[in-house]
Amino acid sequence: MAPENNNMPETFEQIIRSRRSVRSFTDEVPRIEAVKEITASAIYAPYASATGIPLSETRKVFVLKQNSEKMTEAVELLFSQLKKSSAKLDITLMLLPFLRKKMKGFAERLKAVSDSGIPSLKNAPYYIIVAEKKGFPPVEKQSLAHAMQNMWLTATHLGLGFQLISATGLMSKNDRFLELLGLPKGEYELDGCVIGFPSKPPETAKEFDMDKFITWVE
Ligand SMILES: Cc1cc2nc3c(=O)[nH]c(=O)nc-3n(C[C@H](O)[C@H](O)[C@H](O)COP(=O)(O)O)c2cc1C
């Protein structure tokens, strides 16, 4: 498929190395074919067949368009859930101070996000949610990560920006959010992302010294 712009990485290696988090988007809406290619790549990602659940039942992808009634409601629900989760975590840390060392950083981050919201959810053209059915072994989170990564690399290949919206996971127990997606309660884990055109060129590919990370065990 033709890229959405001319800054597209060409080789597979370039796609892997130029994949970055994009957190600010223009109002321009990507072509529907690009969105279809990105969502299709989530379906091609590996899933846990050992659970015995067929893929058609295991994975569901939802595309929400900016300014649509359902997107607006989904984002409001998510922000109010973020506030509730942040308040709950603050109380937990007050009651169980020994958890502070481990969880303080996350609690502060959650508080900041719950105060200021997630700006891209208000301007990215598409919010994509993937639902993965819970099973045994309980590997739905790993499966979701594969689906998100496929979409991230496809978006990068097409010259589009991508941001993970991990807070989507908090909504797997939110009755109204599940109702909005037509999902039954308690059966699916969720993850999400937004896509669109980056408002500024994504940061350049990072350089890593592989010797610091990789050990050849011989
Ligand atoms: C499990 C996981 C969850 C993440 N959740 C978010 C998120 O909710 N919002 C966000 O902006 N970035 C999120 N990120 C992206 C990381 O912050 C990002 O990948 C990291 O800072 C490296 O930057 P890069 O993606 O530009 O290479 C998440 C990454 C991982 C692996």
Number of beta-strand segments: 4
Total number of helices: 8
Tell me the helix content. Answer: 40-55%
Indicate the overall shape.
Answer: globular
Structural class: alpha+beta
Taken in chain order, the helices and strands follow as: HHHEHHHEHEHE
The CATH superfamily of the domain at 12-67 and 123-196 is: NADH Oxidase
Average pLDDT figure? 94
CATH topology of the domain at 12-67 and 123-196: NADH Oxidase
Distance between the termini: 42 Å
Strand content: 5-15%
For the biggest sheet, the summary is: 4 strands, antiparallel
Strands of the widest sheet, in order across it, are 1-2-4-3
Q: Write out the distinct hetero groups bound to the structure.
A: flavin mononucleotide
Radius of gyration over C-alpha positions, nearest whole angstrom: 19 Å
CATH class of the domain at 12-67 and 123-196: Alpha Beta
**CATH architecture identity of the domain at 12-67 and 123-196:** 3-Layer(aba) Sandwich
From the structure above, extract its key features.
single chain; 218 residues; alpha+beta; NADH Oxidase; four-stranded antiparallel β-sheet; globular; binds flavin mononucleotide
Topology at a glance:
Blueprint (H helix, E strand, L loop, with lengths): L11 H7 L13 H13 L10 H4 E7 L3 H27 L4 H17 L3 H4 L2 E8 L6 H18 L3 E4 L10 H7 L6 E9 L22
Antiparallel strand pairs: 1-2, 2-4, 3-4
Helix pairs in contact: 2-7, 4-5
The site of flavin mononucleotide has 8 residues, from β3.
